[in-house]
Amino acid sequence: GERAYLSWADLRGANLSWAYLEGAYLEGINLEGVNLRGADLKEANIKEANLEGANLRGANLEGAIVPKNNS
Questions:
Q1: DSSP characters for 15-57?
Q2: What is the pTM of this model?
């Protein structure tokens, strides 16, 4: 299937609630303060992403490549 490639993009403050981002390549993306409530991030690559203040409540992160430390 199709995959979104948004590596190193700046999406600060965006509303991506319920977005379908399965398998997306989001390495290094700035998701500071982004609403990802209920988003499908299954098998997405969000390595090195800035998730400070992001709302991930109910998001599907199954198999996702996530940051090791986001501080």
A1: B-TT-B-TT-B-TT-B-TT-B-TT-B-TT-B-TT-B-TT-B-T
A2: 0.87
